[in-house]
From TrEMBL:
PANTHER family attached to this UniProt entry: ABC TRANSPORTER, ATP-BINDING PROTEIN
Molecular function in Gene Ontology: ATP binding
InterPro entries named in the record: AAA+_ATPase, ABC_transporter-like_ATP-bd, ABC_transporter-like_CS, P-loop_NTPase
Entry coiled-coil feature ranges: none
Pfam family for this entry, one: ABC_tran
The name this protein goes by in its record: ATP-binding cassette domain-containing protein
SUPFAM superfamilies per UniProt: P-loop containing nucleoside triphosphate hydrolases
Length: 293
C-alpha cells in the first residue's frame, strides 16, 4: 500500500500558492503533518481527499492517479475535515448507517453490525439515538472520527483530530488511530507536537507550502544531539537574546523564562539540552527563517 505525492503544487483562484513542489511517500502506519497556521496542511489534506485538484503534479494510490479516479479513491478513503458539520436533526446511528451505505456496505445486517461496533468504539453507543444538534463539541468530533474510520478505509486523513478533546478522549482517539494505522495509511495534521511524538512513525513539517523536513521522529531528534543549549534568563532580556543569539524557542519553567539555543559548537551560554521533537520543530522553523518565537 503506497500513497505517492509527486511534485504537487496548488494555486488557489486568488493566485495564492498554498503548496509548492510537495514530494512525499506514505505507506501503512501513522504519518504526522506539522506546521504553523497557514503552512498548507489543510490544503494538502483537501487535495489528498480529492476535493481539490493540484495545479501541477500527481498523487498516486498504488499506481492509480486519485484525481483521475476520485470516486474509486473515495471508496477507500476516510476523511475528517477540520470543520465538520452534520444534519442537526439526524441521529448518530442514522447518519453513520447512511455513510456506511455510501461506502458500499450493501448488506443490511453487516451494515447494522459495523455501525454498532463503530459507535461502541468511539463511545457514542449510549447517545446513538439523540439528535446530533444536542451533541457536545467532543461528541461531534468523535462522530467525525467514526464516519472517517467506518468501512475499513485504506487511507485515513484526519485534520486536527485532537482539537477540542479532553485528555481522556484524546487518549481514546490515540488508541483508535494507532489501531487503524496497523492496516491503513493514516495522515494526521496537528498543531500539537505531542500528538506526533505519541503516535507517528513518520512525520513531515510543512512551512509556507513546502516540505521543510520529513523522516522518522527519532532520527530527526538525533540530528540535534550536541547542538542545543538552554539557559534561564530574565523576561526583559529576551529581546536582546533573540537579537544576539540563535534562540529557537522560549518557555516558562516554574515561572522562570528558559531559552533554547541552536549552536553546532559548545555554547558559552547555558547547558547542553537533550533534544525533543518540539526542538526539532522549532529548530526547523528557525533554520528556514520562519517565525517560531
Ligand atoms: N480557498 C482558498 N483560497 C485562497 N487561499 C486559500 C484558500 N484556502 C486556504 N488558503 C490560503 O492558503 C494558505 C494555507 O492554508 P491552509 O488552510 O492549508 O493552512 P493550514 O496549515 O491548514 O493552517 P491552519 O493550521 O491554520 O489550519 C493560507 O495562507 C490560506 O489563507
Amino acid at each position: 500500500m503506497q500513497l505517492t505525492i509527486d511534485s504537487v503544487s496548488l494555486e488557489y483562484a486568488t493566485g495564492f500558492r498554498a503548496l509548492t513542489d510537495v514530494n512525499l511517500n506514505l505507506s501503512k502506519g501513522l504519518f504526522g503533518l506539522l506546521g504553523q497556521n497557514g503552512a498548507g496542511k489543510s490544503s494538502l489534506m483537501r487535495t489528498l481527499a480529492t476535493l481539490q485538484v493540484p495545479t501541477s503534479g500527481t498523487i498516486l494510490f498504488d499506481g492509480m492517479d486519485i484525481h483521475e479516479h476520485p470516486l474509486q479513491f473515495r471508496q477507500l478513503l476516510g476523511y475528517l475535515p477540520q470543520e465538520f458539520g452534520v444534519y442537526p436533526t439526524a441521529t448518530a446511528e442514522q447518519l453513520l448507517t447512511q455513510i456506511a451505505d455510501l461506502k458500499g456496505i450493501d448488506d443490511r445486517h453487516v451494515r447494522t453490525a459495523v455501525v454498532e461496533q463503530m459507535l461502541q468504539r468511539v463511545n457514542l453507543w449510549d447517545v446513538r439515538r439523540r439528535a446530533m444538534s444536542r451533541f457536545s463539541g467532543g461528541m461531534l468530533r468523535r462522530f467525525g472520527i467514526a464516519q472517517a474510520l467506518i468501512a475499513n478505509p485504506k487511507v485515513v486523513i484526519v485534520d486536527e483530530p485532537t482539537a477540542g478533546l479532553d485528555p481522556a478522549e484524546r487518549n481514546r482517539l490515540y488508541d483508535l488511530l494507532a489501531e487503524t494505522g496497523e492496516t491503513a495509511i493514516v495522515l494526521l495534521s496537528t498543531h500539537l507536537v505531542e500528538d506526533v511524538n505519541t503516535l507517528c512513525q513518520q512525520m513531515v513539517i510543512l512551512g509556507q507550502g513546502r516540505v521543510l523536513v520529513s523522516g522518522e521522529p527519532t532520527q530527526l531528534i538525533d540530528r540535534y544531539h550536541g547542538q542545543l543549549w538552554e539557559e534561564k534568563i530574565q523576561r526583559n532580556q529576551l529581546a536582546t537574546y533573540q537579537r544576539q543569539f540563535p534562540v529557537i524557542a522560549h518557555r516558562y519553567v516554574s515561572g522562570q523564562l528558559m531559552v533554547t539555543l541552536l549552536n553546532k559548537k559548545p555554547s558559552p551560554l547555558g547547558r547542553a539540552k537533550t533534544p525533543t521533537l518540539e526542538d526539532v520543530y522549532f529548530a526547523t522553523l528557525f533554520t528556514h527563517s520562519l517565525p517560531s518565537v
